[in-house]
């Protein structure tokens, strides 16, 4: 069996996330569209693994996936075939053949998400589907101070909507907040993310930046004394990169 690694970019606007099983199960997912094309191409039943399961409406600059196949197609032929038959809002940007032990999810060492917020005087007409517009400019400095309280290893259960998980302890390596006159970007680098964790962290930081909450409330959210803020609008959130240790790439 050959082990094929793909790097994808996609516009998540019209999909029910990477996958949606159980209650609210849907075939209108990123993974389902990709599997349909691969199975048509290889005439095989395949399992597809991803580096980070993006949620409904979330986009990806660089999602990593892998699948195993017996096809004798060359990598560039697989890439061309998939980009011909995939919907136009999903694209294969890179392809590699990997050792059998490579697994897009299990071997990922960290993930990076970026959130784009438009802060100009006038909402950008052309970016309206891909950035969240904030009518009031948030206080960037207070948000940076709050982000330091989130960094490190913590139990992020209360910053998520996770139902069942072996562990809700994750480590945030860095939260970077950048802004110019037109746009703010919040970038979170963590070893992993719980369900809705990135969106609830960003929603909480935005509320702090807008004066709706105080940064000191973060400790009370961790302890369960206060709830986290509502998840931010998914249209501004992008999976920027899935990082692997060199030994498994």
Q: How far apart lie the N and C ends? A: 18 Å
Mass-distribution shape: globular
Helix content range? 10-25%
- Oligomeric state of the chains? single chain
How big is the Rg?
19 Å
- Binned strand content: 25-35%
Write a structural description:
Helix 1 crosses helix 2. It contains 5 helices and 10 strands, in the order E-H-E-E-H-E-E-E-H-E-E-E-H-H-E. The protein has 249 residues and is of the alpha+beta class.
Keywords:
249 residues, ten-stranded mixed beta sheet, 5 helices
Briefly characterize the structure.
The protein is built from 5 helices and 10 strands.
Helix-strand layout with pairing:
Elements: E1 2-10, H1 30-42, E2 49-50, E3 59-69, H2 75-85, E4 90-98, E5 108-118, E6 132-133, H3 140-150, E7 152-155, E8 169-179, E9 183-190, H4 197-209, H5 217-223, E10 237-244
Parallel strand pairs: 3-10, 5-6
Antiparallel strand pairs: 1-3, 1-4, 2-3, 5-9, 5-10, 7-8, 8-9
């Amino acid at each position: 069996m050959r082990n094929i690694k793909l790097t994808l970019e996609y516009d998540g606007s019209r999909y029910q996330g990477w996958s949606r099983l159980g209650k609210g199960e849907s075939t209108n997912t990123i993974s389902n569209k990709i599997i349909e094309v691969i199975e048509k191409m290889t005439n095989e039943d395949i399992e597809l693994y991803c580096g980070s399961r993006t949620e409904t409406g979330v986009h990806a600059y660089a999602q990593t996936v892998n699948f195993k196949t017996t096809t004798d197609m060359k990598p560039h032929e697989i890439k061309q075939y998939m980009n011909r038959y995939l919907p136009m809002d999903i694209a294969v940007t890179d392809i590699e053949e990997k050792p059998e032990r490579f697994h897009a999810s299990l071997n990922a060492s960290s993930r990076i998400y970026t959130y784009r917020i438009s802060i100009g005087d006038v909402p950008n007409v052309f970016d309206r589907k891909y950035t969240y517009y904030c009518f009031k400019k948030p206080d960037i400095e207070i948000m940076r101070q709050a982000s330091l309280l989130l960094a490190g290893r913590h139990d992020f259960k209360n910053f998520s909507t996770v139902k069942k998980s072996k562990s809700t302890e994750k480590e945030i390596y860095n939260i970077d907040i950048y802004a110019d006159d037109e746009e703010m970007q919040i970038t979170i680098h963590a070893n992993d993310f719980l369900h809705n964790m990135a969106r609830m962290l960003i929603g909480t930081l935005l509320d702090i930046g807008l004066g709706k909450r105080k940064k000191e409330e973060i400790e009370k959210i961790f302890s369960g004394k206060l709830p986290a803020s509502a998840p931010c609008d998914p249209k501004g959130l992008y999976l920027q990169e899935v990082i692997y240790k060199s030994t498994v790439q």
